[in-house]
């Protein structure tokens, strides 16, 4: 699977233009016009993060670095046995104590949906199923077509736009430290920025950035995604 391109400058117009011309077949003029739309809404962007085994202080520091004021939790099961400070109740309490809004969206945007029709087996997998066993089971090309997913995605866009009006930023959070191992990249990010699979009409132009486990920022180039097909994802 292709890795997201790491740009030395997140707002590198040349790299963005080349990527979008290649991905969409648009002219340079059209691509630049799209870029200007981002420029006009300079803070209309989305961050993603995986809490992994970070301490809460390290997690909070990453949020502060990028001026994030809203955390949208996209875990299907919002608790953590090994890092209990990331369990829903504890996390919400801790974030709100620091003035950060916590929202849970895992019922619509989680990587392990409750809708059995999006599973290869036709049945919802158990939360005790091993990662190796369930990675092949969820068909995210089907998830992208479901109304309940559209509802969650539209609500996420609304949250991003609401934050933008306040000059604030939003992050979606899951558990995997590497976005390549997580549906926040392969499903949610792709639905928002890949022209081949955008799930909603009139999706606003968004720039998406992964906050990596080491704290570095990674701009997600729309060309990194494979053609729509079943992939090994969670």
Give an overview in words.
With 234 residues, this protein is of the alpha/beta class. It has one domain: Protein-Tyrosine Phosphatase, Chain A. Helix content is 37%, strand content 13%. It contains nine helices and six strands; from the N terminus they run ααβαβαβααααβαββ. The protein has helices at 13-24, 28-40, 56-65, 88-97, 106-109, 131-134, 140-143, 147-165, 183-193, and strands spanning 45-50, 68-73, 101-104, 169-174, 207-211, 217-219. It has a six-stranded mixed sheet with strand order 3-2-4-1-5-6, sandwiched between helices. A hairpin with a 5-residue loop joins strand 5 and strand 6 (217-219). Helix 1 (13-24) crosses helix 2. The longest helix is centred in the middle third of the chain and has 19 residues, at 147-165. The protein is globular and about 50 Å long.
Task: Give a topology summary.
Layout: H1 13-24, H2 28-40, E1 45-50, H3 56-65, E2 68-73, H4 88-97, E3 101-104, H5 106-109, H6 131-134, H7 140-143, H8 147-165, E4 169-174, H9 183-193, E5 207-211, E6 217-219
Parallel strand pairs: 1-4, 1-5, 2-3, 2-4
Antiparallel strand pairs: 5-6
Helix pairs in contact: 1-2
**DSSP helix count?**
9
CATH fold description: Protein-Tyrosine Phosphatase, Chain A
What pattern of helices and strands is seen along the backbone?
Answer: HHEHEHEHHHHEHEE
Low-pLDDT runs of 5+ residues are 1-11, 229-234
Count of domain modules: 1
For the largest beta sheet, what order do the strands appear in spatially?
Answer: 3-2-4-1-5-6
Strand percentage = 5-15%
Query: Helicity level, as a percent range?
Result: 25-40%
Number-wise, the strands total 6
Shape: globular
Structural class given helices, strands, pairing?
Answer: alpha/beta
Radius of gyration: 17 Å
Through-space gap between termini: 14 Å
Note the main sheet: 6 strands, mixed
Query: What is the CATH first-level class name?
Result: Alpha Beta
Mean pLDDT across the residues is: 83
């Amino acid at each position: 699977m292709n890795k997201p391109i790491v740009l030395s400058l997140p707002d590198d117009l040349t790299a963005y233009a080349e990527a979008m011309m290649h991905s969409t077949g648009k002219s340079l003029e059209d691509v630049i016009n799209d870029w200007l739309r981002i420029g006009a809404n300079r803070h209309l962007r989305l961050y993603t993060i995986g809490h992994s085994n970070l301490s809460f202080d390290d997690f909070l520091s990453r949020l502060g670095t990028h001026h994030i004021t809203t955390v949208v939790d996209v875990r299907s099961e919002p608790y953590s046995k090994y890092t209990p400070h990331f369990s829903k109740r504890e996390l919400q309490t801790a974030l709100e104590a620091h003035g950060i809004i916590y929202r849970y969206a895992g019922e619509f945007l989680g990587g392990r949906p409750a809708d059995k029709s999006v599973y290869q087996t036709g049945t919802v997998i158990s939360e005790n199923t091993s990662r190796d066993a369930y990675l092949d089971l969820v068909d995210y090309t089907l998830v992208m077509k479901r109304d309940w997913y559209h509802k969650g995605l539209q609500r996420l866009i609304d949250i991003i736009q609401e934050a933008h009006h306040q000059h604030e930023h939003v992050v979606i959070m899951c558990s995997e430290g590497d976005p390549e191992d997580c549906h926040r990249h392969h499903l949610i990010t792709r639905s928002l920025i890949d022209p081949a699979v955008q799930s909603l009409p009139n999706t606003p132009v968004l720039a998406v950035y992964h906050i990596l486990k080491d704290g570095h920022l990674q701009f997600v180039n729309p060309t990194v995604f494979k053609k729509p097909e079943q992939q090994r994802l969670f």
